[in-house]
Amino acid sequence: MPYFDTASAAPLHPVARQALLAALDEGWADPARLYREGRRARLLLDAAREAAAEAVGCRPDELVFTSSGTTAVHAGIAGALSGRRRVGRHLALSAVEHSSVLHSAAAHEAAGGSFTEVPVERSGAVDPAAYAGALRADTALACLQSANHEVGTEQPVAEVAALCAEAGVPLLVDAAQSLGWGPVAGRWSLLTASAHKWGGPAGVGLLVVRKGVRFAPQGPAGERESGRAPGFENLPAIVAAAASLRAVRDEAAAEAVRLRALVGRIRSVVAERVGDVEVVGDPERRLPHLVTFSCLYVDGETLLHELDRHGFSVSSGSSCTSSTLEPSHVLKAMGVLSEGNVRVSLPMGTAEADVDRFLDVLPGVVAEVRERLGAPVSAPPSPAPAASLVVDALGRRCPIPVIELAKVIGEVPVGATVTVLADDEAARLDIPAWCEMREQEYVGEEPADRGSAYVVRRLS
Fold first, then answer.
1. Is 320 considered catalytic here?
2. What is the pLDDT of residues 48-104, one digit of tens each?
3. Minimal CA–CA distance to 193: which of 153, 235, 241, 150?
4. What pLDDT is recorded for position 225?
5. What confidence tens digit (pLDDT) does each residue in 241-269 have?
């Protein structure tokens, strides 16, 4: 069964498995102790730190191991903000950061601080000039992911890092999605990552704090990992994480070329074979293994279940899934379609035949789901004289409001409007996205007795 969701968690790399089993026998003792078993454990820990630091491009004493990538993010943001509290309590971040960064920002605001979200372009990337404009005299820290976890767009980290350095603001980079493919360029100050994203075991994160960055660890003081990650190190997992990072880096150059070609094929074939689809994210400046697309008139939860039934494990940022009632904050910030969203992230070694079979299966699955929902299957009929229409989609969830809009847009003359009444949060994103895809005019949102009224003007 093809597993196409490495952006969530990559399969355990064979080198990680070997290193984990060996370290269970050799690295079980306390590396802080001076007896033989402790010294042996310490050697393993030091070797893992050196290997990880070499892959990151930092000094070994700048890197600590945490219990997860999320823990690294929380500790990194809290420590940097506290270390620079005399400068101010303002935090800058992009609107498409991982939820761990957003949660840290919310906690900071709740404690009396403030933050600014820098908007992104439709590709998902920030404009460096816009990011620089968010920096203030009281900005203590800036955050920017190296590549987006939902759409694969790479961020201009080097450019933003240079601007932050000019402003005297440290930049924290969440490199969880990209570190397995290569080091992060630029003058960043802090970096976080998570081993299970590159084929290491879950439960190991990296936190790098460059020398000279003011940093005050929060919480009770710890004696391990420079006081920045309390608790006994999970040495076998750390050894496996470092070993697998080195192994995937050795394979990364060749696999990046191969997977980039497969993802390029998905991007082009999906657009050719599946009607009313939007492939999102930057087509060039992107991770080599990840592609995301959204299908109009499709229930995301059903689509994922059907693809799973055909043997494909993929994920979604759609609001139509059981895990969330709101659209992905990433897709929302980009202003792209959220309904019927599918994220495909290929593991190293993915067979071309598996990708071909996915592309053969997908059009039929989408067509079947659309038919169940009563979605339009052809272009709208020729215009006929009619007054502007109101569509009541209150109480109906994504993608029904957009389907109802598509059904009636041809019933009003060019220049007339259709008003969709909806109380589903996804409509606020998906109706404007539908208008852009179908070249109709989105007039705007108006208050209604229940929910909102979304007004669309027919242009063609």
1. yes
2. 999 999 999 999 999 999 999 999 999 999 999 999 999 999 999 999 999 999 999
3. 241
4. 75
5. 999 999 999 999 999 999 999 999 999 99
Q: Where do we find the tokens 């493919």?
A: 181
Q: Residue 315 above 50 pLDDT?
A: yes
Going by C-alpha positions, the residue among 305, 302, 317, 311 that lies closest to residue 375 is 302
| Helices 69-83 & 99-110 angle (0-180, nearest 10) | 40
Reply yes or no on whether the pLDDT at 108 is more than 50. yes
Q: Which residues are bridge partners to 367 per DSSP?
A: none
The neighbour count for residue 56, using CB atoms within 10 Å, is 20
Read off the amino acid at residue 318: S
Quote the CA–CA distance of 96 and 124 in Å, as a whole number: 7
Place of tokens 């890092």: 161
Distances (CA, A) of 384 to 66, 69, 404, 412: 64, 57, 18, 6
Residue 413 has pLDDT above 50, yes or no: yes
Q: In Å, how far are 160, 394, 437 from 442, measured between CA atoms? A: 33, 19, 11
Per-residue pLDDT band at 323 (split at 50, 70, 90):
low
Annotated active-site residue in 58, 143, 295, 320:
320
Largest alpha-carbon pair distance within the chain? 90
Per-residue pLDDT tens digits for 132-182: 999 999 999 999 999 999 999 999 999 999 999 999 999 999 999 999 999
Backbone angles phi, psi at 172, to 5 degrees: -95, 125
For the residues 204-212, what does the mean pLDDT come to?
97
Contact 355, 265 (CB under 8 A): yes
